[in-house]
Amino acid sequence: MSPRAAAILVNAALAVVAALALAPLAWMLSVSFMQPGEASAYPPPLLPAHATLANYRELFAHAGMGRYLWNSLLIAGAITLLSLAFNLSAGYAFAKLRFRGRERLFRILLGALLIPAQVAMIPLFLMMKWLHLVNSYGGVIVPALASVFGIFLVRQYARSIPDELLEAARLDGAGEWRIFLRIVLPLLRPIVVTLAIFSFLASWNDFMWPLIVLSDQQWQTAPVAIASLSREHVQDNELMMAGAVVTVVPVLALFLVLQRHYLHGLLLGSVKE
Amino acid sequence: MSRAAWSFVAPALAVIGAFFVLPTAAALLLSFTDFDLYALADPANLRFVGLRNYLDVLAAPLFWKALVNTLYFVGVGVPLSIGASLGAALLLHSPLARAQGAFRTALFAPVVTTVAAVALIFRYLFHTRYGLINYALAHLGFAPIDWLGDPHWSMPAIILFAVWKNFGYNMVILLAGLQGIAPDLYEAARIDGASRWQQFRHITLPSLRPVLLLVAIITIAGYFQLFAEPYVMTRGEPLQSTVSVLYYMYEEGFKWWSLGRASAIAFLLFVLTFAVTRALLWLNGRGERA
Fold it and tell me: ipTM of this predicted complex?
């Protein structure tokens, strides 16, 4: 095979795979602008004959989508901000501060990564019920305040901070928290962005736990709400696609803007020491 | 200094201890009780039942059905997903590829989407009469497939969806692995007259081995947790062909409120996942010594 033919083949193959990856998303967008019922035809229409915003209007005016998106935004935003504080301080301490049992504790934490979250879900539900957090934002936010993965990610990154820098600050008489806030946090900025986008995407996209703990409609997040809407509106293709668009577009946009940080974190998180 | 250090880790450890370690231990205890709707109303109704939940679950035909479905999903879905990831990573890694950044973004996009939302898209793409997938197949001369209504096709449909949704994740990890292979190895092989396939077989695959193992473990552990896809696309139907172990746990726990029994199911799933990933590590260790 000539080098030119090989180049064409490789790029054509990539184009086909990219088209397969994006086609369902493009189709979702297109159908969301179709008239109700238009997509249920053979052959399936690829573009709306007369584009309309009717589905979006219906979604926000009657199906309460605004409320669900607001719930999602509040929950994902709160988890992102609060868990940053917990994971950054703990991850830094595991990397740079000396205390008894540090290595053993960290190994135990890593071991906990092997246990699937679902094992804890049933007692967690009972705990949340006891704490009166079922059907409240707190029921989703509180258990997500710290994560082993987040601590691990910060620790991996914080190990590169030179000890001399911290020692110099200590000699100047600065307290540990002051050193953390003034010197360490600015150095950790790249991992802060990475961890923030990871937490936000994970909590926005989460399904099973919000489904369990937010059974009341008014507290539901967007993914849980469109799943239950789709059970009522099995035939309403166009409406459901509009619901999928408003759920997916925020995270997709966030990824496009910050993808460098996201992919960096993905690789950092999957590399063992 | 030790005290200051503890003030950094204590908040996070308290959260993980209270909302993960403690409930995990409690799940084990719960799985030996008959915790149900009556106990939910009044804990005085709670009784210790020993291994009865485990015996009941192991005697339930639906558990075995769910187990077979889950093993089908993992057994077929994981190799397909990793194969797709490796293929895409090789294409992206090719020196002939143009616009690698743009292609990588496009191929990764499905990973960041919301699974419950994109499962809805695929529910319509798989529609027997109006779905684009059957429309495309018709052009290739295939009769329409009742993807989500025929128990033989429902799991393949969910697997195809999962491959589409997830292949980009492993692709990025494998791509980094490919970029880490020293170019001299290929150079030496070319001088020795090795073909493309021989280079792939004897340089690329062995060098990727640790990365492939990592990717396999992450993917297997993730795929054993199949839940949102059948919940949104099929509700476990048709003929319970897409009931996964986790879906079964959810229904037992939060539809029928047999929380003791659901805890037993959760533990069985955990033990199974653990055993499979351990076996993989063991096989890998043996393969390395051989």
Answer: 0.91
